[in-house]
Write a structure and sequence with these properties.
heterodimer; A: 297 residues; alpha/beta; Rossmann fold; Alpha-Beta Plaits; 2 domains; four-stranded antiparallel β-sheet; 9 helices; 32% helix; elongated; B: 409 residues; two-stranded antiparallel sheet; 16 helices
């Protein structure tokens, strides 16, 4: 497990008259994959830039591993900016070794890791080519390499899937999933809600610099669903009404409307206690995509 | 952790000197200047030869009522004439004919008149007066018997100057006197135009290709800025060393193969001026490097930054236009004022110091103001860099800059 986490507490930032972020607070736990969702201009990039001290925060604390960002944290952080690009007239291997060296890795080790990464993403044959000679997809792979080359314990990715074709998008997902399995803490902002639903443990939704949703993916979905439960059964039907729910029964299916403060776990156990043989037990949660669209309206 | 600015400096240095274009520029610039100088020199020699031989004229009538020109000079195409009108008629009908009329009172007024057709050979018409004047001079010298007088009239005087230094030591003055000022100015120009140009290019390209944010997430802005400055200063030294080695090599070869009259006595160069010159060049580099970094950061791209920087370049070369005044009156009002104006101070102080024309008090004030200007320029560059480096597709407004300076100052 990674030892580090991110904590943002009452963070605010303004640009002139524009309040980019207001009183934002959230935490990213060790080894967690955390999605930072919001439309363009909602304050995601500003938050990340302030976290990395590229911008100065006006108010609040932005901590990585309990400390404000400084160069000494470089060896444990990998960052992929939203506005990305590479030196066009520098070779692939030189860019990777340069970013590794800036993170305090020795020259030999930097070269070794760069070659290993190029092998992983199938770019070994292109190592001496200048960036301008590579296709856009290859450049994206090199770009991600600059964030991963030092095996960081924390990855901060601003719109990592932006501008990727489906093949590279899947490559990014695979590489990040692999890192997450190894215990890397990942904070990423995105518009790719489907990927967030699949990859993220928890998420935060921000709009116009104000936090709207924060929690696990299912918690957020549940907060926006009807909470009704749909079941299919092959035995006798459940009770039409009890202390936990009211049911609308239709042949071998039923819609259960939970009473106030009753959880789906309690209803499931109650049904099993009644001897109802369940084929399916589905919660009426909207997709994360739907939640996002509803919130942003 | 290792200081990142060293890593940035190393990368910037290697990135630049690995480029073929850098070596092409470094090796071909002096070669190009040399070739231009050679062509210019050869064409001057050729032109001089052409001027001595106005062969394009088939007839050159000379009217010489006082017999000023020795008759031995009148060989074809030169022809002595008494009939001015007839000669003029020939000239009117023949573009290769010329009439030269020496005044009736030539010994008093030294005046002569030339008649050509409008379409006569340009070079010939330009050179003929010189030739006629030479005929006149040689004819006059032929009448003198004293060989010393002849030598004075024909020869070129040689002048040698000696100066006493503060300790009373006698030093021979020669070409060496100008070597240090010229070398200092060359290095100054290199640092301002070439090295700061590299810096401008580096910052604006990094912003344009969006690499800057990746780098800024690893390196703080100060380290990035100073790293770039150190790296590109290294580039300047590499370029200077290359030129110095080539220049010295060429000098040695030329001196050993041809006995050219340009012996330089290196021991005669006054090196006491060197430390201050180096200081002023270094300060000038830092000042203009800071300006270029700030300009590169606020421009929307390489092209925009180049346009923005041109105003500062013009200001920096302004003293060149006033060089004559600065040299004739190195302690005059203009020289003194320009010594304290930020964009001109470094070059003007350098020129004045190179010629030993800087009073001690002004020297001290110049050193102090130079350092103050550099500190201010660095501060402004850093703030502009912070403000503008991530501002893509637009420049920060003056109001934004002012507000940022006040807020972050």
């Amino acid at each position: 497990m990674a030892k580090y986490s991110i904590k943002i507490d009452k963070f605010s930032k303004t640009f002139g008259e524009i309040k980019a972020v207001q009183n934002l607070s959230f935490e990213v736990a060790d080894g967690e994959v955390f999605a930072f969702l919001g439309t363009n201009g909602s304050g995601k990039t500003t938050t990340i830039r302030c976290l990395l001290k590229i911008y100065q925060a006006d108010e609040g604390k932005l901590l990585i591993n309990g400390k404000e960002y400084s160069e000494e944290l470089n060896s444990i952080i990998g960052y992929l900016p939203e506005e990305r690009g590479l030196y066009r007239d520098v070779s692939v291997i030189d860019i990777l070794t340069y970013t590794a060296r800036l993170r305090g890795i020795s020259a030999n080790e930097a070269m070794k890791r760069s070659l290993e990464y190029l092998e992983l993403v199938d770019l070994t044959l292109h190592k001496d080519k200048q960036i301008s000679q590579l296709s856009s997809g290859m450049q994206q792979k090199v770009q991600l390499g600059t964030a991963l080359i030092h095996n960081p314990e924390i990855l901060i990715l601003d719109e990592p899937f932006k501008g990727l074709d489906p093949v590279n998008r899947q490559l990014y997902v695979d590489l990040l999933t692999e890192r997450a399995k190894q215990g890397t803490t990942i904070l990423y902002s995105t518009h790719a809600i489907d990927e967030a639903q699949k990859m993220a443990d928890r998420l935060l939704i921000i709009k116009d610099g104000i936090q709207l949703e924060y929690g696990s993916v299912n918690e957020v979905r549940a907060r926006h669903g009807s909470k009704n439960i749909y079941i299919e059964f092959v035995s006798w039907a459940p009770a039409e009404k009890n202390d936990l729910y009211t049911a609308i029964i239709n042949n071998k299916t039923a819609e259960l409307i939970p009473n106030k403060d009753v959880t789906e776990d309690e209803i499931l156990h109650n049904l099993l206690d009644q001897g109802v043989k369940l084929v399916s037990f589905n919660l009426d949660y909207p997709s994360l995509n739907q939640v996002f669209i509803d919130i942003m309206k | 952790m290792k200081k990142n600015y060293i890593e940035v400096a190393k990368f910037e240095y290697l990135k630049t000197i690995k480029k073929k274009s850098f070596w092409l520029a470094t090796l071909f610039l002096p070669l190009f200047i040399g070739v231009i100088a050679l062509i210019s020199g050869l064409s001057s020699v050729e032109a001089a030869k052409q001027m001595e031989k106005p062969t394009s004229f088939s007839k050159i009538f000379v009217y010489d009522p006082q017999s000023v020109i020795n008759p031995t000079f009148f060989v074809s195409p030169y022809e002595l004439t008494d009939d001015v009108e007839a000669s003029k008629n020939v000239v009117k009908g023949d573009k290769s004919a010329v009439l030269v009329m020496l005044s009736d009172n030539y010994y008093t007024d030294l005046s002569s008149t030339f008649y050509y057709r409008k379409d006569a050979d340009f070079m010939g018409t330009a050179s003929l007066p010189t030739i006629i004047n030479a005929f006149v001079k040689q004819s006059a010298i032929a009448g003198i018997s004293n060989p010393g007088v002849i030598n004075i009239l024909n020869g070129t005087p040689t002048n040698i100057s000696y100066t006493y230094d503060e300790k009373g030591k006698l030093v021979k003055e020669g070409f060496e006197k100008y070597l240090l000022p010229i070398a200092s100015l060359v290095v100054f120009f290199m640092s301002v135009y070439i090295s700061s140009g590299f810096l401008l290019q580096s910052v604006s390209a990094e912003k344009e290709n969006r690499m800057i944010e990746t780098i800024l997430s690893i390196v703080d802005k100060k380290s990035l800025m100073f790293g770039k400055m150190i790296g590109l200063m290294g580039v300047m030294f590499t370029q200077l060393s290359t030129w110095l080695i080539f220049g010295f090599g060429i000098y040695k070869v030329v001196m050993s193969k041809f006995s050219l009259p340009i012996p330089i006595d290196f021991s005669n160069i006054d090196l006491s001026l060197l430390p201050l010159n180096i200081f002023l060049i270094f300060m000038g580099f830092l000042f203009f490097a800071a300006i270029m970094i700030g300009t590169g950061a606020v421009g929307t791209g390489a092209e925009d930054s180049r346009n923005l920087s041109s105003i500062f370049i013009i200001l920096s070369i302004f003293p060149m236009y006033l060089m004559q005044i600065l040299l004739t009156s190195p302690n005059g009002l203009l020289a003194t004022v320009l010594s304290y104006f930020p964009f001109t101070s470094f070059m003007v102080l350098l020129i004045r110091n190179s010629f030993g024309a800087l009073p001690t008090l002004q020297l001290v004030i110049g050193i102090v103001t130079s350092m103050i200007y550099v500190v201010i320029a660095m501060f402004l560059a850093l703030k502009l860099f912070e403000l503008g480096c991530l501002m893509y597709n637009r420049r920060p407004s003056f109001k934004e800059m002012l507000s940022y300076f006040i807020k972050r100052g």
